[in-house]
C-alpha cells in the first residue's frame, strides 16, 4: 500500500511536470511543498478516478439468481472483486466465481434484483475482496460483507486484508491449554472449553442455543482483563436474535468490545457466504496483530451452508450429499481451522459456531462435517429442553477434544478427569436403565438400576439445570459431581 | 522448476531439456482447484506443471487432444486466462535421503519448518522447498567394496540418521554395475558423491545419497512373503483379540468423537514397528501440533529414546489445498517403501482416508464426471485397492526383509458404516476395528466394538503366538471371544425378561464378560501404567479372567450362589489389575491367581460346612 501511495505521488509530480509551464510549476511546487498537501491532492485525484481509470464493461450475458454471466474481458483474474453499477447508479459488489475463456461467472452478494441485462456496468477491481482493518472496528456494527451500517461512517484504515486468509502452518501453531471458566457446570465439568478451541453448539430449531451462547459470553473469564474482544457473525439471523445479543452486550457493558457482522434473514442470502470469512479476518487481525483474546461466535452455520448450496446448484455443479456441494468439507475447514493460537503471538481465537440440525438429525451433512473438523461439540437435547432443564445439554453426545490437556492439577483440580469419566459412564447407564424401565416398569427394576434412575433425575435437575445467573465455580461443580456419584457407588 | 531447480547439478539433463524445449499451454478456464489449459505443448498424464509466473504447482489429471486438465496443489485465486502453464516433464516425485525421519512435511513433501522460515506463520503459495536438507553433513560409513557388483537398491554404505535409525545408502542405478570407487568413512552432504560405478555399457556414473521417486508408483521389490509376525501395539483389544500382522492392512472406522485419532496416536506411539509414518490427511491443525509437542517427550518402550526419532509426520490439514490432500497419502507410502527397502518394518497411520476419498470426490465433481455411489467417483474402489495393495512384507532387491503395514482411519459420513468409503475399504483390508459410538459415550476407550470387529490374520499368526508366548494363547483368545459373544445373546434375553430370571451360570457369564470389558478391553491411554501393555501381561490377564470363570463355574455347579462368589471381591479386584500391576511386576498377577484359588476354595469349604 505504501509503495502504491509513493508511486501515486511520483505520478502526480509527473503530471505537474508535463502539463504546466515552468513558472506555473514553481508556483505549484511552492504551494504544495508539504507532503500532506500533495497527499490530499493525490487522494482527491484517486477519488475521482482520474489517475487509475478502470475499464467498465457494458451489459451482461445472463442473470440467474445471484449469479451474473459476462463475456470474459481481458485480464480478469480468478476470485477477483467486481463492482456492478446499476442503471440508477447503485453499486453492488461481487466476485469472480468461475473463469472461462468465453464466459465469466460472477456472484453478486446483494443479489441481482433490479439489474438490467443491457444497461449495467461491470468493473473489475484487480484484487480479491479485502476488508479494511483498524482497532476502531471495536464497538461497531457492519453488514455481512463488512460495510458499516451503524451510521457512524466509514472505517478509515490503511490496512486491508484478503478475506480468504492463508492456512496456518501446523508447526507454527501453539497447542491450546488454558481453560475457559464459563460457570456452567455441564460445560466446565464435562466438556471444558479451552482458549483457542473451536467448539460448535449443535442445536435444533426452537431450542435455546442463543441463550447458551449469550451465557457463555457473559460468564466466561475470557472476558477478564482488558485485552478481550468478541467478534460476532450473524448469518441469516432473525432481527430478534441480533437484538437479543446486542441488548445483552449493552447490559453487561461490553458493547465497546464487540464487532458485529450481521446478515439478517431478510438480507441477501449470497452475502452470507462472506460473513464468516469477513468476521474471521477481523478476528485474526485483533488476535494475531493486536494481541486480543478473541471469542468468535458464528450463527447460524446452517444458513451459511444453505447459501453455499444455492450458489453451487445455480452454477450447475454436481451435488454431493443432500444437494450440498462436494467441497462443503473443505469450505467448512477453511472457516473452522481459523481458530487457534500461534507460537510467539499473544492473542487467541476461540470459535463457537452455532448450527441448527435440520430435523434434529446429527447425521445430517452440516453437523456431520462440522463435527469432523471442530474440536468437539456441545449438543442440545430436545428431551431435556422439554423437561425444562436449562441449559439442555445432552452430555453423552457432547465432547471437548482439548479438555484432556487443559484440566487436572495446575489447571482445574486433580480429580477432574476421573470424576468426569465416572459421570459419563454412570449417565450412559441411566439411559439403559430408563430403556429397561419402559419395558418392565420402574418397580420391577433391580436395586442398582433404580439407583441409576435416581442418579439420572438428580443429575439432570441439580447439575445440568442451572439458573440463568448462577455462576458456579469449578470447585462447586466438581464437588457436585462427587456428591452425585455417591448415589450409585 | 520445483525440485529440479533446487539441485540443478544432479538433474541437469532434465533441466536443460526443460530449457530448450519447454512444453507450454495456456489457461482457458479456472474453477476452484481445477484448471484447463490449451496449447501446443506435449504433456503426459500425471506430469507436474508450473502455473503462471507465480509457479503454482499442479498435476495433469486428464488429457484431451491439446487441452489438459490440471489439479492445482495450491490456491488458484488471482490466476488469469491466458497465463502460461509449463510442463516439467516428470511426475510428482519426492526426494528421498537421510534427514526424512523426525521431520514434518506437507502433502507434497515440502518440510513445514522450511516453509515457515520462508513464509512465516501462514503458508503462502509458490514456495518451493526440497524434502531434505542438502547442506547438512552426515557421517558416512561405506559397507560395499570396490569391485562389488551392484544393482538397484544394493546397499553401498550407511549413515546414522537418528539414534534409532540407520539410513542405508542404496544404489540408484537401475541396471547391473560394478563399484570402481567408494568414499572413505567421513562427513558428507547428501549430494556429495559417495561412489562411482561402471555400468555394463562402460559408462561411469556417480552416486550420492539422494534418490527421487514418483509417489504414485510402487517401489520395486523381489518377492512378497506371507505374513507371520504380529505388529505388537500394546493395546489389549488389538493384540489379543484382533491382531494385525507386520505388513498387513487394517481400518479403523468411526464417527466423530469415537476416538479414531486417539487410537491412531496410541498405535503410532507404542507399536513395535521400526519406523512410523503418520499421515494427517485433512484433519485438524491442533492435532498435528499435539503430536509435535507430545512425541519428542515420549520414549520408545524398547530403546528409551524419544519417539520422534523414528517418526515421520505428514500434515496436510483440512484447510490446506484439497489436491495436496489427495497426494499426501502417496507421499507417505513412498517414504515408507523407501525405508522398507532398507529392511525396516514400517507402519503407516493414515488419518483419515475418508478425507482423501472426499478429495477425490471434490475434484471429480469439479471435472463434472458422472458420479457413482453418493457422489464418489467410480474409480474410488480401484484407488483404494491400489493404496492398500502397497502394504506387505517383502524380500527386497538387496536381500533384506522389510514390511509396510497400513492402518487407515475411516470417518464414515453420518457415522453410517454402509457408506461407500467404509464398504469399499472393507473389501481390501484384513483387519476391521469398528468403533462404536455407544462405547465412546460411556467412555469405554478404545471404543473398538468386539461384536463387529475382526482380524483375518488370527490363523496366520497363531504359530507366532504359540511359539513366542504360550501354546494356549489362541485357545484363551477363542474362549474370551466366546464369552463376549454369549454375553451378547444373554443381554438380548435379559432385555426382554430381566436379568433376575437368568440362571446363575448365565449370570456368571455376564459377570465375567463385564470383568473382561472393564478390566481387559477398556484401556486408559492417559494412565502411565495402562497406556502400553506388553503381550506377556496381556496373556496373563486373559488367563486370570478365564481362571476366575472356570473356578467360579465349578462352584456354581455345586450350587453355591453367584452372590456369594461376588462377595469375595475377585471381580472387582480383577478390574483393578490394569491400574495397579505395573508392566514389570507380572508376578503380582500370579499372586492374584493364588488368591483367587484360595478364596474360592475357602468359599467351597465354608459352604460344605453350612450344609
Structure write-up:
- The complex is a heterodimer of chains A (489) and B (611).
- Chain A is α/β, with parallel strands linked by helices and 489 residues long.
- Chain A contains 15 helices and 20 strands.
- Chain A has helices at 2-19, 22-31, 35-47, 185-190, 209-219, 239-251, 275-289, 301-315, 328-336, 365-373, 382-386, 403-406, 416-440, 447-464, 474-486; strands at 56-58, 62-64, 67-71, 81-85, 91-100, 103-108, 121-124, 130-133, 141-143, 159-162, 179-180, 193-194, 201-203, 228-237, 258-264, 293-299, 340-341, 348-356, 376-379, 399-400.
- In chain A, the strands form four sheets. In chain A, strands 9, 13, 14, 15, 16, 17, 18, 19 and 20 form a nine-stranded mixed β-sheet that branches. Chain A has a seven-stranded antiparallel β-sheet with strand order 1-7-4-5-6-3-2, with helices on one face. A two-stranded antiparallel ribbon of chain A has the order 8-10.
- The longest helix of chain A is centred in the C-terminal third of the chain and has 25 residues, at 416-440.
- The model of chain A has no long low-confidence stretch (mean pLDDT 88).
- Chain B is of the alpha+beta class and 611 residues long.
- Chain B is 36% helix and 22% strand.
- Chain B has 18 helices and 26 strands.
- In chain B, the strands form five sheets. In chain B, strands 8, 18, 19, 20, 21, 22, 23, 24, 25 and 26 form a ten-stranded mixed β-sheet that branches. In chain B, strands 1-2-5-4-3-6 form a six-stranded antiparallel barrel.
- In chain B, strand 23 (392-395) and strand 24 (401-410) form a beta hairpin.
- In chain B, helix 14 (504-521) packs antiparallel against helix 15 and helix 14 runs parallel beside helix 17.
- The radius of gyration of chain B is 28 Å and the shape is globular.
- The model of chain B is unreliable at 1-18 (pLDDT under 50).
- The interface between A and B is large, with 76 and 72 residues.
Amino acid at each position: 500500500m505504501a509503495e502504491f501511495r509513493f508511486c501515486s505521488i511520483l505520478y502526480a509530480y509527473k503530471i505537474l511536470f508535463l502539463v504546466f509551464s515552468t513558472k506555473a510549476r514553481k508556483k505549484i511546487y511552492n504551494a504544495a511543498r508539504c507532503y500532506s498537501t500533495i497527499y490530499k491532492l493525490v487522494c482527491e485525484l484517486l477519488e475521482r478516478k482520474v489517475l487509475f481509470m478502470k475499464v467498465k464493461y457494458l451489459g451482461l450475458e445472463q442473470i440467474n439468481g445471484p449469479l451474473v454471466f459476462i463475456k470474459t474481458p481481458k485480464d480478469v483474474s480468478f476470485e477477483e472483486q467486481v463492482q456492478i453499477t446499476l442503471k440508477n447508479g447503485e453499486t453492488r459488489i461481487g466476485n469472480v466465481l468461475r473463469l472461462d475463456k468465453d464466459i465469466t461467472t460472477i456472484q453478486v452478494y446483494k443479489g441481482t434484483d433490479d439489474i438490467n441485462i443491457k444497461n449495467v456496468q461491470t468493473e473489475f477491481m484487480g484484487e480479491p475482496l479485502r476488508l479494511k482493518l483498524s482497532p476502531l472496528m471495536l464497538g461497531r456494527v457492519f453488514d455481512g460483507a463488512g460495510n458499516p451500517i451503524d451510521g457512524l461512517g466509514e472505517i478509515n484504515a490503511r490496512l486491508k486484508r484478503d478475506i480468504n486468509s492463508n492456512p496456518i502452518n501446523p508447526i507454527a501453531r501453539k497447542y491450546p491449554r488454558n481453560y475457559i471458566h464459563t460457570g456452567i457446570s455441564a460445560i466446565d465439568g464435562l466438556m471444558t472449553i479451552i482458549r483457542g478451541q473451536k467448539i460448535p453448539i449443535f442445536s435444533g430449531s426452537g431450542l435455546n442455543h442463543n441463550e447458551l451462547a449469550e451465557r457463555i459470553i457473559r460468564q466466561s473469564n475470557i472476558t477478564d482483563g482488558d485485552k478481550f474482544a468478541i467478534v460476532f457473525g450473524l448469518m441469516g439471523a432473525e432481527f430478534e436474535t441480533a437484538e437479543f445479543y446486542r441488548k445483552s452486550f449493552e447490559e453487561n457493558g461490553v458493547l465497546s468490545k464487540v464487532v458485529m457482522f450481521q446478515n439478517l434473514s431478510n438480507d441477501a442470502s449470497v452475502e452470507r457466504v462472506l460473513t464468516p470469512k469477513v468476521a474471521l479476518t477481523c478476528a485474526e487481525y485483533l488476535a494475531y496483530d493486536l494481541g486480543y483474546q478473541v471469542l468468535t461466535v458464528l450463527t447460524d452455520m446452517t444458513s451459511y451452508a444453505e447459501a453455499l448450496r444455492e450458489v453451487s446448484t445455480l452454477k450447475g455443479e454436481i451435488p454431493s450429499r443432500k444437494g450440498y456441494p462436494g467441497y462443503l468439507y473443505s469450505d467448512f475447514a477453511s472457516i473452522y481451522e481459523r481458530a487457534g493460537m500461534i507460537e510467539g503471538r499473544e492473542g487467541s481465537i476461540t470459535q463457537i459456531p452455532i448450527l441448527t440440525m435440520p430435523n434434529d438429525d446429527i447425521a445430517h451433512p452440516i453437523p456431520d462435517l462440522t463435527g469432523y473438523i471442530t474440536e468437539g461439540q456441545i449438543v442440545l437435547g430436545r428431551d431435556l429442553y422439554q423437561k425444562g432443564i436449562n441449559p439442555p445439554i445432552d452430555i453423552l453426545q457432547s465432547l471437548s477434544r482439548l479438555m484432556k490437556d487443559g484440566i487436572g492439577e495446575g489447571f482445574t483440580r486433580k480429580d477432574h478427569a476421573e470424576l468426569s469419566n465416572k459421570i459419563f459412564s454412570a449417565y450412559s447407564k441411566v439411559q439403559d436403565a430408563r430403556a429397561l424401565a419402559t419395558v418392565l416398569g420402574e418397580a420391577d427394576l433391580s436395586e442398582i438400576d433404580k439407583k441409576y434412575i435416581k442418579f439420572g433425575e438428580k443429575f439432570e435437575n441439580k447439575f445440568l439445570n442451572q439458573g440463568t445467573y448462577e455462576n458456579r465455580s469449578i470447585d462447586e461443580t466438581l464437588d457436585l459431581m462427587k456428591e452425585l456419584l455417591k448415589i450409585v457407588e | 522448476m520445483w525440485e529440479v531447480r533446487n539441485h540443478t547439478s544432479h538433474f541437469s539433463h532434465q533441466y536443460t531439456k526443460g530449457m530448450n524445449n519447454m512444453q507450454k499451454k495456456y489457461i482457458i478456464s479456472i474453477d476452484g482447484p481445477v484448471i484447463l489449459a490449451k496449447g501446443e505443448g506435449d504433456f503426459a498424464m500425471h506430469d507436474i506443471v508450473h502455473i503462471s509466473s507465480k509457479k503454482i504447482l499442479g498435476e495433469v489429471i486428464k488429457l484431451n487432444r491439446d487441452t489438459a486438465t490440471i489439479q492445482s496443489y495450491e490456491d488458484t485465486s488471482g490466476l488469469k486466462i491466458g497465463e502460461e502453464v509449463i510442463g516439467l516433464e516428470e511426475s510428482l516425485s519426492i526426494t528421498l535421503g537421510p534427514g526424512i525421519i523426525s521431520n514434518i512435511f506437507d502433502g507434497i513433501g515440502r518440510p513445514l519448518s522450511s516453509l515457515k522460515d520462508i513464509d512465516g506463520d501462514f503458508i503462502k503459495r509458490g514456495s518451493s522447498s526440497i524434502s531434505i536438507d542438502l547442506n547438512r553433513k552426515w557421517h558416512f560409513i561405506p559397507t560395499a567394496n570396490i569391485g562389488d557388483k551392484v544393482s538397484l537398491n544394493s546397499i553401498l554404505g550407511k549413515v546414522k540418521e537418528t539414534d534409532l535409525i540407520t539410513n542405508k545408502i542404496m544404489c540408484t542405478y537401475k541396471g547391473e554395475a560394478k563399484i570402481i570407487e567408494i568414499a572413505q568413512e567421513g562427513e558428507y552432504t547428501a549430494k556429495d558423491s559417495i561412489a562411482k560405478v561402471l555400468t555394463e555399457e562402460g559408462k561411469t556414473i556417480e552416486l550420492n545419497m539422494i534418490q527421487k521417486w514418483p509417489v504414485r508408483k510402487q517401489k520395486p521389490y523381489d518377492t512378497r512373503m506371507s505374513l507371520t509376525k504380529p505388529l505388537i501395539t500394546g493395546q489389549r483389544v488389538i493384540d489379543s483379540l484382533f491382531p494385525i500382522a507386520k505388513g498387513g492392512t487394517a481400518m479403523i472406522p468411526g464417527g466423530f468423537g469415537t476416538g479414531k485419532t486417539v487410537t491412531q496416536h496410541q498405535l503410532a506411539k507404542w507399536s513395535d514397528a521400526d519406523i512410523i509414518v503418520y499421515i494427517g490427511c485433512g484433519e485438524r491443525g491442533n492435532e498435528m501440533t499435539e503430536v509435535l509437542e507430545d512425541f519428542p517427550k515420549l520414549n520408545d518402550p524398547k530403546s528409551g529414546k524419544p519417539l520422534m526419532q523414528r517418526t515421520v509426520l505428514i500434515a496436510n490439514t483440512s484447510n490446506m489445498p484439497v489436491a495436496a490432500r489427495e497426494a499426501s497419502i502417496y507421499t507417505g507410502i513412498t517414504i515408507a517403501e523407501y525405508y522398507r527397502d532398507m529392511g525396516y518394518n514400517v507402519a503407516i497411520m493414515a488419518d483419515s482416508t475418508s478425507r482423501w476419498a472426499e478429495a477425490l470426490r471434490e475434484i471429480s465433481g469439479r471435472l463434472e464426471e458422472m458420479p457413482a455411489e453418493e457422489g464418489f467417483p467410480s474409480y474410488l474402489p480401484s484407488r483404494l485397492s491400489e493404496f492398500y495393495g502397497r502394504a506387505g512384507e517383502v524380500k527386497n532387491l538387496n536381500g533384506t526383509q522389510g514390511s509396510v503395514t497400513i492402518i487407515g482411519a475411516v470417518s464414515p459420513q453420518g457415522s453410517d458404516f454402509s457408506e461407500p468409503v467404509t464398504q469399499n475399504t472393507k473389501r481390501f483390508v484384513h483387519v476391521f476395528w469398528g468403533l462404536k459410538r455407544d462405547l465412546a459415550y460411556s467412555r469405554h476407550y478404545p471404543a473398538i466394538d468386539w461384536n463387529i470387529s475382526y482380524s483375518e490374520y488370527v490363523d496366520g499368526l497363531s504359530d507366532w503366538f504359540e511359539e513366542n508366548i504360550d501354546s494356549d494363547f489362541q485357545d484363551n483368545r477363542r474362549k474370551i471371544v466366546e464369552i463376549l459373544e454369549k454375553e451378547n445373546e444373554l443381554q438380548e434375553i435379559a432385555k426382554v425378561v430381566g436379568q433376575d430370571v437368568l440362571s446363575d451360570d448365565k449370570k456368571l457369564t455376564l459377570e465375567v464378560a463385564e470383568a473382561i470389558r472393564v478390566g481387559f478391553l477398556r484401556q486408559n491411554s492417559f494412565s502411565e501404567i495402562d497406556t502400553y501393555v506388553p503381550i506377556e501381561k496381556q496373556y496373563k490377564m486373559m488367563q486370570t479372567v478365564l481362571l476366575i470363570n472356570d473356578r467360579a463355574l465349578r462352584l456354581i455347579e455345586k450350587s453355591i450362589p453367584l452372590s456369594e462368589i461376588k462377595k469375595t471381591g475377585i471381580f472387582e479386584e480383577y478390574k483393578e489389575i490394569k491400574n495397579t500391576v505395573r508392566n514389570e511386576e507380572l508376578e503380582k498377577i500370579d499372586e492374584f491367581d493364588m488368591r483367587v484359588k484360595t478364596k474360592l476354595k475357602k468359599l467351597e469349604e465354608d459352604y460344605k460346612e453350612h450344609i
